[in-house]
Amino acid sequence: MSDNSGAVTPNTVGELRVRTTFNPSANGDVDVIKQRTAELINLCDHLKPKDPRLVALAQRAYEEAAMWAVKAATA
């Protein structure tokens, strides 16, 4: 990923988990689903110190929801 200056920035945990750059159909809905899911996963990642188990469960549920939403968007 790169920012506006062209510098390469590392992917976030959420971006890596939902593979935001993988969209062979170039479907705009898929881009939105993946980006919003990545944001939710990143939000949860900040909560890990409170309860890492619950965070892991929430992140997995977001990943699964994104998978089904992408499937629906590309059906």
Could you give a short description of this structure?
It contains three helices and no strands. The chain has helices at 13-18, 28-45, 52-73.
Number of domains as seen in the coordinates: 1
Kindly state the mean pLDDT as a whole number? 92
Label the overall shape: flat
Count of helix runs? 3
Distance between the termini: 28 Å
Can you count the beta strands? 0
- Tell me about the biggest sheet? none
What does this protein structure show overall?
This protein is mainly α. The protein has one domain. The chain has 3 helices and no strands. It is flat and about 40 Å long. It starts with 12 loop residues before the first helix and ends with a helix.
Keywords:
75 residues; mainly alpha; 61% helix
Draw up the topology in text.
Blueprint: H1 13-18, H2 28-45, H3 52-73
